[in-house]
Write a structure and sequence with these properties.
294 residues, 43% helix, 14 helices, four-stranded parallel beta sheet, Rossmann fold, alpha/beta, 6 strands, two-stranded antiparallel sheet, 10% strand, globular
Length: 294
C-alpha cells in the first residue's frame, strides 16, 4: 500500500517526499526533524508558526521591524530563521530576541517552547488562496536542490487533489489549522496570538500594533504606520528582490514572480472550478464541522 508521500510524488512532485510521524515532508529535512523536539530555545524567542503561503514573510518582516523599533528591512531572507531547515548553529547565531519561523504543527516542535512559555504567533489564511499560491510556488521554485527543476510538474487539478488529501510537503493545511486552533486549550499558560492574513490586508496598522503589544515591544503610533507602509506588498517585494543578500534564499525559475506573486485575497476564484470549490467546501465542513467561512 502506498504512503501519502508516494501518492504526492505520483501526483507530480519531483521533490522527494517521505513520511515523518504521519506527516508528509521533504526527505531533506528529516535529519533536522529527527532531533527537533530536544532542541534548545531561549526564553525570549518568538515563534511564528504558519502553514506555507499564509503570510509568513510578511509577518516575519513586521516582527523584525517591531523589535528594531523602526521600519528597517532585515538583511537576510526569512530562510535564515526557518528552524525546519536550518541547523542549530545557524539558529544559535541569531541575536536575541529571535523571530523564528516554522511550518510544523505543535506536537513536532521543540518541547522547550512549551516549557519556557515562549511567545507564539499563528497566522492563518483562506485555504483556497493558500492552495493557489502554493501551486505557483511549487511549480516555479527549486526546493532543496539548486540543480533540480521545479518541485511540482503536474497539473493544477493534480495539485489541488493532493492539497485536499494532504499529500504535499508540510502535509494537510486543514490538519495544520486544526492543530493550532487547539493550542489555547492544550497550553493555556503559553502566550499565544492567532491572526488572519485577511485582517492584515484590511488594516495592517492595527495588526502591527497588535503584534507589538503581544511581544511586549510597544511603539509610537507613527512607527506602526511606517512599518505597515514599508511592509506593503510592492515595497516588501522590492526589498526581497533588490535589497536583501541572496543567502538563505531558494532559487526560482527565471521569469517567475518569486515569493511575492499577487498578495491578494480571493484569487482562488480564478482557478477553482465550481466542482472543485464544492468538493473543497465539503471536505472542510467534514473536518471543521462548520460551513466554509471565506
Amino acid at each position: 500500500m502506498s504512503t501519502r508521500a508516494e501518492e504526492g510524488m505520483r501526483a507530480g512532485f519531483s521533490l522527494k517526499l517521505t513520511m515523518f510521524e504521519d506527516m508528509v515532508v521533504p526527505c531533506g529535512i528529516i535529519p533536522i526533524l529527527s532531533s527537533f523536539r530536544t532542541r534548545e530555545v531561549r526564553d525570549d524567542d518568538i515563534f511564528l508558526c504558519t502553514y506555507p503561503k499564509s503570510g509568513t514573510h510578511w509577518t516575519w518582516e513586521i516582527l523584525n521591524m517591531i523589535v528594531k523599533g523602526e521600519a528597517k528591512y532585515t538583511e537576510h531572507w526569512l530562510g535564515s530563521s526557518y528552524i525546519d531547515q536550518r541547523n542549530e548553529d545557524v539558529i544559535d547565531a541569531i541575536a536575541s530576541p529571535r523571530i523564528l519561523t516554522t511550518h510544523m504543527i505543535p506536537r513536532i516542535l521543540p518541547r522547550a517552547i512549551w516549557e519556557r512559555k515562549c511567545r507564539i504567533i499563528n497566522v492563518q489564511r483562506n485555504p483556497k488562496d493558500v492552495a493557489v499560491s502554493y501551486f505557483f510556488q511549487s511549480t516555479n521554485q527549486n526546493w532543496m536542490n539548486e540543480s533540480a527543476g521545479p518541485s511540482f510538474t503536474g497539473s493544477w487539478d493534480n495539485f489541488l487533489d493532493a492539497f485536499i488529501k494532504g499529500n504535499i510537503p508540510n502535509d494537510s493545511a486543514f490538519d495544520h489549522t486544526l492543530s493550532w486552533n487547539k493550542v489555547p486549550g492544550d497550553y493555556p499558560d503559553v502566550p499565544f496570538l492567532q491572526l488572519h492574513y485577511e485582517d492584515l490586508k484590511k488594516n495592517a496598522v492595527k495588526v502591527v500594533k497588535q503584534l507589538a503589544e503581544f511581544i511586549l515591544h510597544p511603539l509610537p503610533d507613527k512607527v506602526y504606520e511606517e512599518i505597515a507602509e514599508a511592509c506593503g506588498f510592492t515595497k516588501l517585494k522590492h526589498a526581497h528582490t533588490c535589497l536583501k543578500t541572496p543567502m538563505f534564499s531558494t532559487p526560482w525559475k527565471e521569469g517567475s514572480p518569486g515569493h511575492f506573486r499577487k498578495g491578494e485575497t480571493g484569487d482562488w476564484k480564478h482557478w477553482f472550478t465550481v466542482a472543485q470549490s464544492e468538493r473543497f467546501d465539503r471536505i472542510y465542513q467534514q473536518k471543521f464541522h462548520r460551513t466554509f467561512p471565506y
